[in-house]
Structures are given as C-alpha cells and as structure tokens.
Amino acid sequence: MCYGAIEAGGTKFVCAVADENLKIIKKVQIPTTSPQETFKQIFSFFNAYDLKAIGIGSFGPIGTNPNQDNYGYILATPKKGWTNFDFLGTLKKRYDIPVVWTTDVNAAAYGELLMGAAQGKTSCLYLTVGTGIGGGVIMDGQIFQGIASPEMGHIYVKRHPQDEYEGICPYHHDCLEGLAAGPSLEARAGIKGQDLPIDHPVWDIQAYYIAQALMTYTLTLSPEVIVLGGGVMNQDHLLRKIRQEFTTQMAGYVETPDVEEYIVRWGLPNKSGIIGSLLLAQTIS
Amino acid sequence: MCYGAIEAGGTKFVCAVADENLKIIKKVQIPTTSPQETFKQIFSFFNAYDLKAIGIGSFGPIGTNPNQDNYGYILATPKKGWTNFDFLGTLKKRYDIPVVWTTDVNAAAYGELLMGAAQGKTSCLYLTVGTGIGGGVIMDGQIFQGIASPEMGHIYVKRHPQDEYEGICPYHHDCLEGLAAGPSLEARAGIKGQDLPIDHPVWDIQAYYIAQALMTYTLTLSPEVIVLGGGVMNQDHLLRKIRQEFTTQMAGYVETPDVEEYIVRWGLPNKSGIIGSLLLAQTIS
Ligand SMILES: Nc1ncnc2c1ncn2[C@@H]1O[C@H](COP(=O)(O)OP(=O)(O)O)[C@@H](O)[C@H]1O
Ligand SMILES: Nc1ncnc2c1ncn2[C@@H]1O[C@H](COP(=O)(O)OP(=O)(O)O)[C@@H](O)[C@H]1O
Ligand SMILES: [Zn+2]
Ligand SMILES: [Zn+2]
C-alpha cells in the first residue's frame, strides 16, 4: 500500500508515490498537454501501484466547494483545453480511493507546515512568486478555505511612487500578480529576474509590492508565519528588502513576530507542493 | 440566570443583560472615560444580576491570543488611558464566570450570522465603515482568528485616479481607513457624510475604495456573504455603487455569488455587536 500525489501545474505535472512512511518511491514529470493526453500518462504511472489515497494540489482557479457543481473542476484558466475539465471526477472514475483535492499553493502550505519552514506552527501562509503569484493558507492545522479557493495573488496594491508600469494581468492589469510576478519583473526591467543585477532599482519596487501584500495578508489572515517560495524568491537580497519594507509599511500598527522569523523562505524548495500532497493523502487514509 | 454582554467602543460602552432566550432585560450606555471610572459603572450595572456568562466585543487593537501575555488587554490605542489596560482580567477578577473576549467587529459578525443579514450561512465577513473601518470574520460558524485580531481596515489600496487626498490614518496615511472612513470622507469633501449630496463626486471615490477592499477580502478570505454596517453605510446609493464597482474590479476573475446577495447591509443596525456578544456568552455557558 502506498500514497499517491499529483502537483498539477500549467507547464508540468509532478506525480509521486510514497510508502507508508512517506518515503518517495518514484516521482515523474509529465508535460501539461491536453487533459486527455496528460491523464493517460498519469494513469500509466499510478497503475503500477496499489494506492491507498491520492493528494492533489492543482493550478487554478479550481472548484473547491463540495456543495457546488464545479467541485473538482478546473475553472476559467488561460491554459488551453483545461477550462471546465473535471479533474477530480476523471481521477475518481479510475481509482476508487479517497482523494484530497486542493490548490497547488494550499498543498505547498501544508507541506511547509508539516515538514518545511513552518514546522511546529499550527498556521501559515505560503506565497509563491513565480510565473504567477498565489497563496495558500493553513489555519489550526487545516487547509483554510472559504467558498472559493483563495486567489490572493490578484489583490490590488498601492503604487510604488516610482513605478509607472501598467501591469500584465489579463484580468486586472495592475493587481499584485500583474505588477510583481516574474513576467512583470522581466517586462519592467527588460531582463529576466535571474539575470537582473542586485543593484537594479526594480528590486525596490518588487520588494515594495510583495511586502505590501504580506501586510494585507497579515491584517486579514494573521498567520503565525509567512513562507515565501517560487523562482523570484531565489534572491537573498530580495528577501531582506521585503522584510525591511514590511516593517516600514506596517508602521508598528499590529504586533507581529520578529520579521526574520515571520517572513521566511520555503524549507522544501520546489518540493513543498508534492510533499504537501502526499501528506494530504495520508490524512484521509 | 442570565447572560451579560459588553460592546466596548471608543466613545461609549453598551452593556446588556438578557434572559435565557436572549430577550434583552436591560441595556445601558456608559460614556467611555477612564478605565477605572468606566468599569465602576459596568460593575454597578451587572451587579444586580445573576450572570451565567459574559460576551465582550471590544474596540482595539486587543490581545486575542490566549498564549500571549497581552491576552485580554487593550493594546496600543489612541484612546487615552486605555493602552495596556487588562480588560478581561479586570472583569474576571470581579465575576468568576466564563467570558468570551473578542473584537467589536467579530462580535458583530457573529450577531449578523446568527440573527442578522447572514442568517443561514456558516461564514461571513462584517465590515463597519464609520469613524474607522474594521472587519470581523466568521468561518464554519466560529470566530476566525489568527495570531492577532485582524485589522483589515488598515490595508493599503490602489488609488482612485481622481483622488489626491493624502489620507488621514496616523499610522499609514493612505490605507483604507485613512482614505475611506467617515472622517476622511468628510475631510476630502469638506462636508460630513450625512450632509453630502448624493451626486457629489466623492461617493464614487468612496465606493471605489470600499469595493476594492471587498475584493481583497474576497480573494483572501472568501466568505459566503459580506455584511456592511456603520454610519457611512446608511447611504443606499453608496451600497449600489459599491456593488457595481466590485463587479467591475473583479473583472469576472473569481466566481462569487450574485452581488446583490453577496454584498448586503447589516440586518441588525447598530445592534449587531451587542447581540453578537450575547450570543457569544450563550455559547460558553
Ligand atoms: N533566480 C531567480 N531570480 C529571479 N527570478 C527568477 C529566478 N529564477 C526564476 N525566476 C523567475 O521566476 C519565474 C518562474 O517561476 P517558477 O517558480 O520557477 O515557476 P512557476 O511559477 O511557473 O512554477 C520566471 O518569471 C523567472 O524569470
Ligand atoms: N447617513 C450617513 N451618511 C454618511 N455618513 C454618515 C452617516 N451617518 C454617519 N455618518 C458618518 O459615519 C461616521 C460615524 O460612524 P458610526 O458608525 O455612526 O460611529 P462609530 O464608527 O464611531 O461607531 C461619521 O464619520 C459620520 O460622519
Ligand atoms: Zn489579476
Ligand atoms: Zn492605517
């Protein structure tokens, strides 16, 4: 008996199988093509195992309300062919076992809480700053979910005084994701984030927006710790700038833990999601 | 046996006693002076009753984390004499009965959920737009509380293109409260909200900020319904404008219930807090 996990992303799927102690037995990457083609490969991977349960962390937006018809579906996504695809139903039809269905970032938050940078806490916010910006929340050890999956990357933000970039979100232009995800960083500076010199002024703008968002999440959700992941967060100096900006913007209004402990980097780089999904599978079997 | 409730505000305290069916037996208003003087009057009111439990909804910020030393305290408040006052301890020393301690807006949210505009739901956000802006959240029928009490009135917002008002928050200048609470509305227009003509351009700015905040709360908390209260929300046309703006700003990104049902006005005008506090008292006795 073993646990299965799927981290479903817009460019690739990661599928893994682990033993009862959550030791990973096998892991594969599947490019995200059409749902049919992708699932063919998912099935051919999992078919070799006697699975007890599966945990899924999926790109979104997704239907997460069990009382709604779209539960288990991928909703309106720019990813061709996936809008209104019945992800959970497709999987359940093949494997008659318990499945946990949540967002990629919720799964990552869960992974970080139990085995990563938020170990020992009962709540955390996980925020990825990569191709997009997305957040997952654990409260009292449980995935925090309202009537829809949170899409906290799309909040509007106060402008940095030196920033006139129009923003890149197809829905909102200058929401957080539109101003501070990897592609907007690149568009504003004309250079990819990984190639941008540390002293480029764009990093101040970047830190300003991320810090502001962390302030908003703090004032609404008040998690014990905020874990940052994603490609853009590979920059040490950015993390330092974010912490400084956060302190400046909060202006001492609400007491938060020491910023070095409150705002941290992921403890399971690029693995929080798949490990969180395995951990979620374990919870229901 | 009866239940007691305190709605603690910066200008006045409302104290109430209700019977086992939550029918209010007596209610008084006490002006907020010094903690000592105010509590003298609170005690003299409650002493006449055999109380089973007390529910408190207090102005803030307050210490709401039972694991911290400041639990039950009023924290840094501009209200003279109240910073670091041990509210809960003072009450507990006098009455050795169960007490529920939460923010004024959480109590109001609870009241609205069980007996007001959010009846029949299991989650709601209550937002007051009055002298300040504050929000309370119920999730799964319980007060939602992270490590600190939420102070969601102080999130930063994207500027309305026609608004150059600097903002009035002593901590953040142009946070939501600094730009859209009653006093800022008055400062921007030069006229009190209650006297402002319906066609004054300031209402568009007002609606823009409130709607934007509701979008942020939706994307982070995703409640079933948002209940708006407070003096400024006495304006019918403002509620309509907020709904329109909310729809525009969301740009269809996340599915939310029909906006007429999703964004509503309080069902217990000026009473949500005290009724919520009574209901909370009932939960622990
Ligand atoms: N070291 C780095 N510094 C800054 N930006 C980076 C770095 N590495 C990757 N990025 C940016 O992060 C984005 C990709 O994010 P990533 O988290 O790797 O993938 P995804 O979000 O698609 O899962 C790209 O915009 C890329 O330019
Ligand atoms: N009908 C109204 N229209 C617009 N603004 C109003 C109205 N009534 C009161 N206000 C404003 O609301 C604020 C007071 O809010 P209120 O909720 O009554 O009190 P508080 O927040 O202090 O408990 C003041 O700024 C006042 O100008
Ligand atoms: Zn957006
Ligand atoms: Zn403020």
UniProtKB/TrEMBL annotation, chains A, B:
Molecular-function GO term, any one: fructokinase activity
CDD domains according to UniProt: ASKHA_NBD_ROK_BsFRK-like
Record's keyword annotation contains Lipoprotein: no
Species the sequence originates in: Jeotgalibaca dankookensis
The UniProt record lists the keyword Cell cycle: no
UniProt protein name: Fructokinase
Cofactor: Mg(2+)
Keywords: ATP-binding, Carbohydrate metabolism, Kinase, Magnesium, Metal-binding, Nucleotide-binding, Transferase, Zinc
Matching InterPro entries: ATPase_NBD, Carb_Metab_Reg_Kinase/Isom, ROK, ROK_cs
